[in-house]
Amino acid sequence: MLVILAVSDLKRSVAFWRAAFGWRPRVEVPVYVELVMPGGTLGLYQREAFTRNTGEGAAGPPVAGTTSTELYVRVVEPLATAARLEAAGARCLSPLALRPWGEEAAYYADPDGNVVVVGRALPGPAPLDPDAETLDRWLQASSAWVLDHLAELAAAPASGTTTGAASPPITEEPAGDLVDLLPGLARAAEVGLRPNGAGYLAYIPGGGLPAAAIADLLADVANRYTGLAATAPALTRLEADVLRWLATEFGYGPEARGILTSGGALANFAAVVTARHTKLGAGGDWRDAIVYTSAQVHHTVVRGVRLAGIPEANVRALPVDDRLRMRVDALEAAIEADRGRRPFLVVASAGTTNTGAIDPLHALADVCAREGLWLHVDGAYGGAFVLSPEGRRRLDGIARADSIAFDPHKGMFLPYGTGCLLVREGRRLAEAHHGDAPYLQDIDGDDATPSPTAYGPELSRPFRGLRVWLPLMLHGARAFREALTEKLELTELAHQGFASLGLDIVDPPQLSVLAFRLPRARDEAVEQWDARNEALLHAINARGRVWLSSTRLDGRYVLRVCVLSFRTHRPTIDALVEDVRAAISA
Ligand SMILES: *Cc1c(COP(=O)(O)O)cnc(C)c1O
User: Fold this and answer.
1) CA–CA distance, 481 with 141 (Å, rounded to integer)
2) For the chain, how far is it from start to end, CA to CA, in angstroms?
3) Cβ neighbours for 579, distance < 8 A, ≥ 6 positions apart
4) How far is the CA of 298 from the centre of ligand 1 (A)?
5) Cα of 261 from ligand 1 centre, angstroms
6) Which atom of ligand 1 is nearest to the CA of 409?
7) Is the pTM above the cut of 0.90?
8) For a tag on the chain, would you pick the N or C end, based on fewer CB atoms within 10 A?
9) Whether residue 381 has its Cβ less than 6 Å from ligand 1
10) What are 489-524's pLDDT values in tens digits?
11) What is the distance of C-alpha 90 from the center of its chain?
12) What is the C-alpha separation between 207 and 46, in angstroms, rounded?
């Protein structure tokens, strides 16, 4: 938010606010300075310019003990601000109280005698359909919040705090205006990890492209019904075009279809259902249905199998080779051993979460073709690398899969809530998810544009297409290709840095995950070795510039780095290597 304060000596007042609060100037012109403060901005006008331009600033209730013109400052948190004003040496003229004009306000004088009225409007209930003025105020407040969030993110430590405030109670009356609520939201966001920050190299980093956030706002306000093509034909067409573009990037042909899901877990689930429906039919007994994965498969695949009505025990978690990829000979042996049962699905990983391992896609496609099995590739983490030429080379063979799950909210840097399932023979997806109802008869047509609901488990759904489409429009596809290539290069840089520190590289990066640990000392007990590595992780993270996570491989503790944020660039990797070096020698 912008609060306005007119002052008699702009320079001195700026110096005062900067020294007192550390507020940084953002806009600086001779008669106006905007200072960035938590929860908003403070606009300082030279008094004459302010009154000349706005006519405001001269009116207000009289204050005893001063002759200065009064100025009204609406702040986010009057109580906190009042306390800070006092701490900074401002003189309280009249403490925070409900004023006759219906607002809480306090009066202060800065050392120059400028009177500051710190106030907060007590809002009446906003109608559910707010007027343009209210809405504009909310948008302005949100805009300021977004800018502050991103400015603070750039300077913030790699992880947030571990504890924080609870949410205010829900009452019959409004809890406050949006500007009153946003600081609490900012504080709540501080608690926990910061997956949208440059230094976040743990698990799978999150995205959060601002362009996608804007797309969500626009999509949600328009709120068109994009479950069915007939109710929003142009918008569902836009989504279909995005899916077509993605399918082409993965090497699929024109008969491919896809859906945007909430994430990889749901995409994997819909893939299992589609494979089951295609290979084993609509009805029946799936007690003998067998699924093959590697022991490194993501747990949501196993859950997807169970949700699809197939016993979890029927998932054969096959052994991996020395680079943690599914062993094809083990798959062939397992299929042999399952003769008489109903094997129907192989789930390959294109980028495991643990180490980024890519299963041998061509060899698995050969086995599936020979045995009549469905090949699904879980590329939730790694799939997006097909957008980069080098990544596409490493994922060679992925186009032979019957279906591919990948997460735009990972490798395309979108905010959480966007996964994608692509199916090579698109009609298989439709056959598995068909549904019909008499109350849809007016709008249920055979439109050339496919209805998303005909291809997935959802009916009503958010318009996810726009959050994929708008960033592609605003940045161009090349920006994504280059960013993903950069992530591969940065991971290689970290690899070289770690190798030069004498660390044990568990597996050279296949994509952008790098697993490593301290080498085991001679005759060292494995528990002791694990403990040293765990201590190393904490020592690295404690430095606050990067945040890493760990995993276990063959039962042993392993640290891992995953480079996937669009905000992570070379300086972060340099900091990573420096901090690992420092943590080792500490
Ligand atoms: C993240 C991930 C998933 C699950 O995806 P969500 O988007 O979290 O639902 C599945 N498989 C792999 C390999 C993943 O990295």
Assistant:
1) 34
2) 45
3) 540, 543, 545, 546
4) 7
5) 12
6) 7
7) no
8) C
9) yes
10) 999 999 999 999 999 999 999 999 999 999 999 999
11) 42
12) 41
